[in-house]
């Protein structure tokens, strides 16, 4: 389905055109008409499916018609992480570029008092759309900086992730500030019991749309190296020594390991940045920006960036540790081979991780290739049962310090273009 077959405004179509969005993805095709009809919606779709546009486009279209109060927050979007909140905000800017007077503010924790003050002012002046992490929104609600009584749209993005992070009570508290008349839209990659419970509590007669989950893109070439813990650094180094690589994410399971690894790889001359929850927000922003504009080639991170980070052309994802939750594996490697590109995922598996690898293979319904280790890395250990290994040896290239500094121009419109002009028609409620 083409976007111009949807009943959305010409201004939105112009922005989509400028961003080279032509056809709807399946989740967009299913969700947008239902949201435009005013239904509550439960969307089961993972990141990379186009879910953000699936809820932003119909809501922006509604808001642009001007039937909503100009002095109140008309839409709340909840995000589990600051990075995702910023990214949603950027997408709002892109889509709303030609719209007359739709404003947004992103509010998230972990930054200084000045930022909190700026957020407070932004909230009190009234933004149409607020994109917030749960804890920070609660702080602003407690401080009386924001009134949600007239809010018409309540959106939860990556709801399963928010519950994993312990935000159930915060979400219910936020929902209690909202009018029952609101339209609620919830997206989740998975549908475990706690998500079903949340859906029952906050959605009203929802339409359910589902995009097959838990299958990594076909184009990802998945490899597992069976090894002992002490061999991992050498293998990672070998894999990274390919001078055609300038966009790699390496996931490790603890922030300690992230710090250690980034130091070790820096010493060896690799161009790395470390991303973990001990960093100040400013530092995290700088690292993400450096990675986006290719000043940093290798991002070493905890799962903080495994979901919802919108960088399309990651060439390689390395799982230094096997994720405990097989779904996390899918999310991690989903950073590569996006938008139909090719990609590689390499996972380092010790004998202790074997059962976790089997669970992953069961989930993705595929056996991951297990070649011999790269040269000079030693012999792989025997795994408890048949490892399905191949005799192929992995050959990485030798060069290190990958260094492409090119800044790729984005086709998305930048900035909001027009300043906010509040809408004047009667409030929906
Ligand atoms: P999301 O699942 O919302 O994180 O989107 C994944 C990526 O796909 C983002 O880079 C979007 O900008 C891009 N995208 C979303 N919808 C479309 C579309 N219909 N056509 C082309 N790219 C899209």
Protein model, in words:
The model is unreliable at 396-429 (pLDDT under 50). Helices cover 34% and strands 16% of the residues. By secondary structure, it is of the alpha/beta class. The chain has helices at residues 10-18, 26-36, 51-64, 82-95, 113-125, 134-142, 159-164, 168-176, 193-202, 232-240, 255-267, 281-292, 326-333, 354-364; strands at 41-44, 75-78, 104-107, 129-132, 153-156, 183-188, 207-210, 220-226, 248-251, 272-275, 298-301, 316-319, 343-349, 370-372, 389-393. The two termini are 33 Å apart. The longest helix is centred in the N-terminal third of the chain and has 14 residues, at 51-64. It has 14 helices and 15 strands.
Ligand catalogue: adenosine monophosphate
Amino- and carboxy-terminal Cα gap: 33 Å
Major sheet strand order: 3-4-2-5-6-1-7
Return Rg in Å.
22 Å
Major sheet characteristics = 7 strands, parallel
Give the strand tally.
15
Counted by DSSP, the helix tally is 14
Question: Percent helix among the residues?
Answer: 25-40%
What class, by secondary structure content?
alpha/beta
Low-confidence spans:
396-429
Approximate strand percentage: 15-25%
Shape: globular
What is this structure's SSE topology?
Elements: H1 10-18, H2 26-36, E1 41-44, H3 51-64, E2 75-78, H4 82-95, E3 104-107, H5 113-125, E4 129-132, H6 134-142, E5 153-156, H7 159-164, H8 168-176, E6 183-188, H9 193-202, E7 207-210, E8 220-226, H10 232-240, E9 248-251, H11 255-267, E10 272-275, H12 281-292, E11 298-301, E12 316-319, H13 326-333, E13 343-349, H14 354-364, E14 370-372, E15 389-393
Parallel strand pairs: 1-6, 1-7, 2-4, 2-5, 3-4, 5-6, 8-13, 9-11, 9-12, 10-11, 12-13, 14-15
Helix pairs in contact: 2-3, 3-4, 6-8, 13-14
The protein binds adenosine monophosphate.
């Amino acid at each position: 389905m083409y976007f111009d077959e949807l009943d959305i405004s010409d201004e939105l179509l112009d922005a989509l055109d400028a961003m080279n969005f032509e056809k709807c993805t399946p989740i967009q095709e299913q969700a947008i008409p239902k949201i435009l009809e005013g239904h509550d919606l439960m969307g089961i779709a993972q990141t990379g499916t186009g879910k953000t546009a699936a809820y932003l486009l119909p809501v922006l279209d509604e808001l642009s018609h001007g039937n909503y109060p100009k002095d109140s927050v008309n839409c709340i979007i909840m995000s589990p992480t600051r990075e995702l909140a910023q990214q949603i905000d950027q997408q709002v800017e892109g889509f709303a570029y030609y719209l007359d007077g739709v404003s947004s503010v992103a509010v998230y924790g972990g930054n200084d008092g000045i930022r909190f003050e700026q957020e407070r002012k932004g909230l009190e002046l009234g933004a149409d759309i607020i994109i917030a992490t749960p804890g920070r929104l609660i702080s602003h609600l407690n401080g009386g900086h924001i009134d949600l009584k007239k809010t018409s749209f309540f959106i939860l993005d990556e709801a399963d992730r928010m519950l994993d992070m312990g935000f159930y009570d915060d979400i219910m508290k936020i929902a209690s500030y909202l009018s029952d008349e609101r339209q609620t839209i919830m997206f989740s990659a998975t549908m475990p019991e706690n998500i079903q419970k949340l859906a029952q509590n906050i959605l009203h007669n929802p339409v359910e749309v589902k995009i097959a989950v838990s299958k990594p893109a076909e184009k990802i070439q998945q490899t597992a190296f069976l090894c002992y813990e002490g061999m991992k650094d050498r293998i990672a180094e070998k894999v990274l020594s390919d001078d055609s690589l300038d966009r790699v994410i390496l996931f490790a399971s603890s922030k300690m390991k992230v710090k250690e690894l980034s130091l070790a790889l820096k010493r060896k001359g690799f161009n790395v940045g470390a991303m973990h929850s001990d960093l100040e927000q400013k530092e995290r922003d700088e690292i993400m920006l450096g990675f986006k504009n290719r000043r940093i080639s290798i991002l070493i991170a905890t799962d903080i960036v495994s979901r919802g980070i919108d960088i399309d052309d990651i060439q390689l994802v390395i799982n230094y540790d096997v994720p405990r939750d097989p779904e996390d594996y899918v999310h991690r490697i989903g950073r590569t081979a996006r938008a139909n590109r090719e990609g590689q995922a390499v996972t380092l598996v010790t004998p202790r991780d074997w059962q976790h690898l089997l669970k992953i293979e069961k989930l993705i319904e595929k056996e991951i290739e297990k070649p011999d280790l790269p040269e000079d890395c030693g012999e792989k250990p025997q795994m408890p049962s048949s490892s399905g290994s191949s005799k192929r040896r992995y050959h990485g290239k030798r060069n290190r310090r990958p260094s492409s500094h090119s800044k790729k121009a984005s086709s998305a419109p930048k900035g909001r273009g027009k300043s906010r002009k509040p809408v004047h028609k009667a409030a929906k409620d």
